[in-house]
Amino acid sequence: MFDLANTRIGIVGLGYVGLPLAVEFGKQFPTIGLDINAARIRELQVGHDSTLEVAAEELRQANHLRYTDRAEDLAACNVYIVTVPTPVDGYKRPDFSPLIGASTTVGRLLKPGDVVIYESTVYPGATEEICVPILERESGLRFNADFFAGYSPERINPGDKDHRVTSILKVTSGSTPEAAAFVDALYRRIITAGTHRASSIRVAEAAKVIENTQRDVNIALVNELALLFERLGIDTEEVLLAAGTKWNFLPFRPGLVGGHCIGVDPYYLTHKAQQIGHHPEMILAGRRINDGMGTYVVQRVVKLMNQRRIAVMDAKILVLGLTFKENCPDLRNTRVVDIVREFGDYHACVDVYDPWVDPQEARHEYGIDPVAELKSGHYDAIILAVGHRQFREMGAKGIRAAGKPNAVLFDVKYLLPAGSVDGRL
Ligand SMILES: NC(=O)c1ccc[n+]([C@@H]2O[C@H](COP(=O)([O-])OP(=O)(O)OC[C@H]3O[C@@H](n4cnc5c(N)ncnc54)[C@H](O)[C@@H]3O)[C@@H](O)[C@H]2O)c1
């Protein structure tokens, strides 16, 4: 049992988290990556990663890695690592269906001595309360007698080429001291930055979810300050730059909070809190402020348009950027859609331009058809919503060329010099 030399790894879910991990393990251990999305498996089999996280050359370096969409191909594995999504439903409640599906799959493959490690972000207790009972039911095996569990949260940041899976210190944990030692040793084989062995799975789960909750609340505070400073007629970035000269002032900036993690994970924690009778205030207040920022941006732009006597109804609006963050194609939970929809409510005509997105995905996820190229002299207002490098390279002059002579230019991202735009957060 717990024999590193005979480890055969199965990774369940080959998205932003699962693929880079599979590639690193696949350089050292026999590894099979499973995904229920057959199209994803086909692209990986021909050496292409559409998330742009892993380059073709790196995929080639993973000599011992194979891809499959058939669960039975993982039958010979003895360590399973689950990296499936953990979204929220329409009521912002945790949606455990991917974790339940993956646990059912793994449970049917489990053999005595196997270890199942979860990486998906959850609330403290979820692995042992939700996933382990499924593993027991499907396998007929006993937890911590026949099979073991671990939890090791992922900290990667899509699009970030400096902080890679191997260079980010990783928290590990296990369901028994021996399992914890094995999980830690396993990750130490690939993580050059080292590991931090947490005392329990629940501690490791809690650590991950508060990392993102802390960011969410901090951004919410700065967003609230941006609302306040606008009323006071002072520029938020100037205030933040001045305050940032103090050694312990945290460098957060206002903005939209989208994506698969920061805008979602806090709801896992608040759900658990409510389940045990604690009503979280700070965390939900932060979520409310951050979720209102798209509407606020539109209000600001509409005011500026009014001041220039530009009618909002039927106005031509250009939104630059649709992804949830700069320089990556990730559209999940992007809050730029709030800006697009809000302008739609004003009966304005909105074009979205984003050189990073897959147009089919934008249509499928949000019913938005991004324009393929920019018209010139066409728009009444331009909102720079995402800080892609292409927009930085265009500069204020290049961006303004898409607008009419008196068009409003609003910068959500502090991408352009303050004096070159008409408004910003
Ligand atoms: N993306 C990030 O930056 C990031 C960072 C840290 C942690 N996380 C967490 O990691 C987890 C995974 O996130 P992600 O961004 O990699 O998601 P993702 O959507 O990019 O990838 C998940 C993959 O799992 C597959 N999948 C879903 N159900 C499956 C099943 N039953 N069997 C096999 N495959 C299945 C999907 O087809 C998809 O390809 C989430 O809990 C997320 O919160 C994400």
Could you say which small molecules are bound to this protein? nicotinamide-adenine-dinucleotide
Average of per-residue pLDDT values: 97
Q: How many beta-strand elements?
A: 13
Major sheet: arrangement of strands: 3-2-1-4-5-6
Q: Determine the fraction of residues in helical runs and give it as a percent range.
A: 25-40%
The best one-word shape is elongated
Which class of secondary structure composition applies to the elements?
A: alpha/beta
The ordered H/E elements are EHEHHEEHEHEEHEHHHHHEHEHEHEE
Number of helices: 14
Biggest sheet record: 6 strands, parallel
**Radius of gyration over all CA atoms, rounded:** 23 Å
Task: Give the low-pLDDT segments.
Answer: none
Keywords: NAD, Oxidoreductase
Organism: Candidatus Competibacter phosphatis
Domain UDP-glucose/GDP-mannose dehydrogenase C-terminal: 318-418
Pfam families: UDPG_MGDP_dh, UDPG_MGDP_dh_C, UDPG_MGDP_dh_N
Describe the 3D structure.
This protein is an alpha/beta fold. It is built from 14 helices and 13 strands. The protein has a 6-stranded parallel β-sheet, with helices on both faces. A 5-stranded parallel β-sheet has the order 10-9-11-12-13, sandwiched between helices. The longest helix is centred in the middle third of the chain and has 32 residues. The radius of gyration is 23 Å and the shape is elongated. The chain starts with 8 loop residues before the first strand and ends with a strand. The structure holds nicotinamide-adenine-dinucleotide. Nicotinamide-adenine-dinucleotide binds next to helix 4.
